[in-house]
Amino acid sequence: FLKATAVASLATGVAAVAGGTKAADKKFTIALIPGLTTDAFYITMRKGAEAAAKAVGAELVFQGGPDFNPVTQVPVLDAVIAKKPDFILIAPTDKDQLIQPLKKAADAGIPIITVDTFIGTGVYQTGNGDADFPLAYIASDNLLGGAIAARALAKAVGEKGKVYVSNVKPGVSTTDQREQGFKEEMKKYPNITVLETQYNDDDANKAASQLQAVYARNSDLDGVFGANLFSALGAANGVQQAGQTGKIRVVAFDAPTSIIDNINSGLVDLAIAQHPAEIGYFGVMAAYAHLTGNSIPTAIGTGFTVIDKSNVTDKNIAKFIYSD
Ligand code: T6T
Prior knowledge:
The chain has 324 residues and is of the alpha/beta class. Helices cover 46% and strands 18% of the residues. It has 11 helices and 13 strands. Helix 2 runs parallel beside helix 10 (276-291), helix 3 packs parallel to helix 4 (99-107) and helix 7 (204-217) packs across helix 8 (229-241). The longest helix has 24 residues, at 2-25. Residues 35, 39, 41-42, 116-117, 174, 228-230, 253-254, 274 line the site of alpha-D-tagatopyranose.
């Protein structure tokens, strides 16, 4: 009798495994729509997503717009929805303007996770509001990232003087939160004045001209926080063009190789590297978990690595430099 039971449960076990294998045999198509395709941050995210897709035998489709703008992102999203992928991972380029376009995907039965940026408040699956339908938000803690930037810049300028934020445009969840976190933390430094934010539309050339214009109005400018890759790169170029390298201090969000070069030359003090590959990896893994009937957390936070001259050659740090 004992033997029979053992055989029976073994058989059940085999059946369960066979069932699991069958579900996993379907090759899922997971679409990843970045903020824009030519940004080292999203290129690195794609690598992590591809590693995860390979691990679970899914197909990853990477399709995005040529600039960071809802006007170009929404048609890409519509084209992706028309192809009916099993899952959409997307970095929405605007908190509000992507709600309705993404609702169309949800209404078509395509599950969604937002990666890097969010829609609405970024708090999903609450039964509240019109933007809680994505299953999860996977990203850096951008408020914290802004606070880290403020502390670093305050230290670099000797806790006094004038600084400003070089930013993309209002409505982008990540960069809005970085600015918010930065300004809140800066309140702890009464001798630092934070000048008006300069919005560059994700255009490094514009950010460079703005740096020079702010400096022309404020010859005692001490520092700038570049709130994303192009803002930081442009601000740093502006500092160099103004002949102020080392005098106007630069703290960069994001860590492409160009910013690392600027750290080595002394133009940029430090870079706050996000972990985009990790965001992409967990995005695909969470999608796969959902598609195979598992529940997933509504939020996954990924970390930062602060890179400066003192640690840039350490291979455990350098692995967080973005891919070009
Ligand atoms: O900083 C990243 C990303 O987190 C942000 O949402 C948009 O800009 C980047 O892609 C860098 O260019």
